[in-house]
Amino acid sequence: MRPSGAEPPRRRRDWRTIILFLAPALVMFGLLVLTPIVVAAYASFFNWNGFGTPTNFIGLDNFRRLIADEIFLGDLERTLLLIALSVAVQLPVALALAMLLNQPLRGRRVYRMLFFAPYVLSEVVTAILFTMIFSPNQGLANHVTRLIGLGDLGAVWLADTSTVMYSVFLVISWKYFGFHTILYLAGRQGIPAELHEAAALDGAGPWHAFRYVTLPLLGPTIRVSVFLSILGTIQLFDMVWVLTGGGPIRASETLAITMFQEGFKRFHVGYASAISMVIFLLSLLFGLLYQRFVLRRDLQGAITTMGDQR
Amino acid sequence: MRRVRSTALHLTSIAVGAAIVVPIVFGVLGGFKDNGQLFNSPFGLPDPWILGNYTDVLGSEMFWRQMGNSFGVALATTALVVIVAAMAAFVFARYSFPGREGVFTLFAVGLMFPFAVAILPLFVLLRSMGLLDNPLGVILPQAAFGLPVTIIILRSFFRSIPAEVEESAVLDGCSPFGFFWRILLPMARPAIATVSVLAIVGSWNNFLLPLIVFNDSEWWTLPLGVRQFQTQYSTDTARVLAYVTLAMVPSLAFYAIAERHLISGLTSGLGKG
Predict the structure, then answer these.
(1) The domain that contains B178 carries what CATH number?
(2) In chain A, which among 128-157 make CB contacts under 8 A with chain B?
(3) Does A221 touch chain B (CB under 8 A)?
(4) Which range of residues forms the domain containing residue A286?
(5) Residue A267 near chain B (CB below 8 Å)
(6) Which residue has better confidence, A7 or A290?
(7) Which of B74, B127, B157, B253 is a Cys-bridge partner for B191, taking CB atoms 3.0 to 4.6 Å apart?
């Protein structure tokens, strides 16, 4: 885990080199990443249409409005639903498939390559493809459900407020499960073979070997994969924007979509900035807490203090 | 028993593989059909095969321009982020100075900053800098947001290069820049390939930023173009499928070549330190 490199002896501090080499990254990051976030924080206290400088200071009003806004509360609820589905369904399936691909199986390389392929497609292309697949008349999905005897059960998919989120989840899973499978597979292959041999000698069957050897040793990988999945869900935009535009009747809006609608369509930039801040704080808070309580014991920090060892 | 188990494994793999392949094949074949055929047999082979949808797209100037724009933006973003991040990672990996971990942590926390948070003020900023409808308006922010992951991966690679290499280079009269440029970067070629692949894929697939920066269709990248095409021809499913399929080709081709780098980047870069 620890990079094998040694700290090079650097007796005198060469400030000129340090500053020269660090400056471009600092300027870019500061100007284009940090500044906009600070500006969003500032703008969230104003009633501002995005033109000129914000002058109409309204304190926490935007946030007060948010917690009474049904759409925003719905966004949070839908985010939680997607997180729950991902953690309870998508990731376990990905794990099972990783275990499967770890078996001596002919064509294993091909399967691995196949499962991971959707990850490189853009969310836009994936979403459009699935819009066609879910299309009630010409789509593939309804032909499949008819074929396996479910009749017209799924006739609506993206068009019904009660099924749209599950359809979205299906597409997200299609695109991303392979990514998690690859992570798990890499983790599994990092477990020394001796451990499983020893377990087998002690009479452990496949299930016990998985439960008491593989699973605990995969802990760090699983925790990172859960982390990335949740973070990705909090920030979800492209996929849903193209699949549904947040509809029908705003039933699939995410935080980022509501932000986009308010900011770029209705020019409520102050209010939209408040939503940005919620996305930001949720990501940051979740990231730091997760890092602090879940990831800390695994490695020398995966995200915030990655490889921090002096 | 063994055979049963192995058959079950195969069947599961094939089923999952089919779940991946079928939607893609649906798109590819759908492009060869007309809408009547799509309605009657979404599964079957086209009969007759209709080439018009594909040839129309391939013959349209818009499609090639979008492809070119996507290429240009991806290459420029990647070159910029890799050079700038490599310089910073070099300092983080091989110099010690007060505040180093603090600054590094700032970058690392940036991993958690989504585009969505910054997009509104970024839009205002780019507008005031006159960078709307300018490829730099996409390239610069993309590179900036790509810095964290690139710096993290490169730093851990630079650290793994033994100090002796640098010492002997310095003894031979190598300046810090000379060491960085002529020795460290060439040695880091595998890591650079990895971060480049991540940057290219990220840029190629980016949607939100080009969506707000490029109003003028002259600058549109493929994701914007595909999206626009879908809205424009919403009733002509077969034609949209042809466009989507052709838009997938570069990604899948690139994946076939760079799969190894992509996987090593994702597993080593994000998974571990």
Answers:
(1) 1.10.3720.10
(2) 128-133, 135, 137-140, 143
(3) yes
(4) 67-295
(5) no
(6) A290
(7) B157
User: Is A58 a member of any domain?
Assistant: no
Q: Calculate the CA B252 to chain-centre distance.
A: 12
Assigned domain for B199 exists: yes
> Helices in chain B by DSSP H: which ranges?
2-30, 35-40, 52-59, 61-94, 100-109, 115-128, 136-159, 163-171, 176-178, 185-187, 189-205, 208-213, 222-232, 237-264
Q: Is residue B264 part of a domain?
A: yes
> Which tokens belong to A245?
């535009």
ipTM of the complex: 0.89
Contact list, A231 vs chain B (CB under 8 Å): 112
The count of structural domains within chain A is 1
Domain that holds residue B168: 61-271
Judge whether A309 lies within some domain.
no
A residues 82..101 contacting B (CB < 8 A): 97, 100-101
State pLDDT tens for residues B176-234.
888 999 889 999 988 899 899 989 999 999 999 999 999 998 999 999 999 999 988 88
Supply φ then ψ for residue A199, to 5 degrees.
-60, -40
In a domain, B96, yes or no: yes
DSSP B37: H
| pLDDT per residue as tens digits for the range B97-135 | 888 999 999 998 888 887 888 899 899 899 989 999 999
User: Which residue in the set A10, A124, A228 is minimally distant from B227, CB to CB?
Assistant: A124
- Give domain status of residue B237, yes or no: yes
- Measured CA distances, A172 to A61, A169, A180, A243, B177 (Å): 35, 5, 12, 11, 45
Place of tokens 């074929």: A147
Distance of alpha carbon A287 from alpha carbon A303, whole angstroms: 8
What residues form DSSP beta bridges with A47? Answer: A56
Which chain B residues touch A300 with a CB distance below 8 Å?
Answer: 273
Give strand ranges (E) for B201-241. Answer: none
CATH code (residue A238)? 1.10.3720.10
Candidate from B19, B35, B84 with C-beta closest to A24: B84
Q: Is residue A132 part of a domain?
A: yes
**Mean pLDDT throughout A35-63?**
88
Structural domain contains residue A263:
yes
Residue type, position A57, single letter: F
Full-model pTM:
0.88
